[in-house]
């Protein structure tokens, strides 16, 4: 079996793995984008809540003030938790991107190796064909000389 044929299944596995990792990377990227969008919405909600609360601030009693501060604290905790989730998602995306990049490079390298093997195999086949043609021409020429020498 030719070298190029022996390496093709390995290259196909690497290419399939690279495609799978590309899909996983894309999914991780979508998750990052979703979390970023949600974080922006949460920050906008907090900002709007603060803006509306300060605009309608008249006489605020102690209970309303305590509820206001408590709600802002909970929003702050939610924002912090969301930022942690976003950081984790970004790390996961970078991990997936690195895995994909490594596997893509491996698949491309195997492609180049297979191409080189095919070129070598083609040169060898061309050389054999040339030698066979030369040998046939030599036999024909010797046979033609032998026929003219016998005549």
Written overview of the protein:
It contains two helices and no strands. Helix 1 runs antiparallel to helix 2. It is rod-shaped, with a radius of gyration of 36 Å. With 151 residues, it is mainly alpha-helical.
Number of helices: 2
- Considering DSSP H and I runs of 4 or more, what fraction of the residues is helical? over 70%
Would you report the number of β strands? 0
Outline the low-pLDDT stretches: none
Task: Give a brief rundown of this model.
The chain is mainly α and 151 residues long. It is 94% helix and 0% strand.
Which tags fit this structure?
151 residues; 94% helix; 2 helices; mainly alpha; single chain
SSE arrangement:
Elements: H1 3-55, H2 62-150
Helix pairs in contact: 1-2
